[in-house]
Amino acid sequence: MTDLLEYKGYHGSVRYSGEDEIFHGRIEFIRDLVTYEGRDAKGLKRAFEEAVDDYIVLAARQGREPDTPLKGSFNVRTGPDLHRKAMILARKRDTNLNTVVTEALKTYLEKEERRD
User: Fold this and answer.
1) Is the dihedral of CA 1, 20, 7, 69 positive or negative?
2) Do residue 12 and residue 55 come from a single domain?
3) In the predicted structure, residue 60 carries a pLDDT above the cut 70
4) Could you give phi then psi for residue 28, rounded to 5 degrees?
């Protein structure tokens, strides 16, 4: 995926089907499946925004909150050696594992953004 659309805090994928000659996508980073399609870039963007609006309205009609994308927590499987090193570092710094992982991820992402 190279491009993401954004609207009201939701992100949507951009894909093209040469066979059908149509752009299509789905709302990413939520559990529910919400798709959209359009004949061109403007049509796809409009369909994505309509899909987000419809998703929010449908959830309200069903008496539930729509999924919130990227809530800020996720599971990471590092393997025992990296887990051990991170826990020891956290203990040495008198902090917790979440802080160590968050700082490491932030440092890595900032470095990658500078490369782009």
Assistant:
1) negative
2) yes
3) yes
4) -90, 160
Structure token digits, residue 61: 């009609």
Is 54 within a domain? yes
Domain boundary among 15, 31, 61: 61
Establish if 74 belongs to a structural domain.
no
- Is 1 a residue whose pLDDT tops 50? no
Q: Which residue segment(s) compose the domain that 21 sits in?
A: 4-61
What CA–CA distance (Å, rounded) separates 87 from 76? 14
**Among 66, 73, 82, which Cα is nearest to 33's?**
66
Element (H, E) at 26: strand 22-28
Closest of 16, 13, 45 to residue 29, by C-alpha: 13
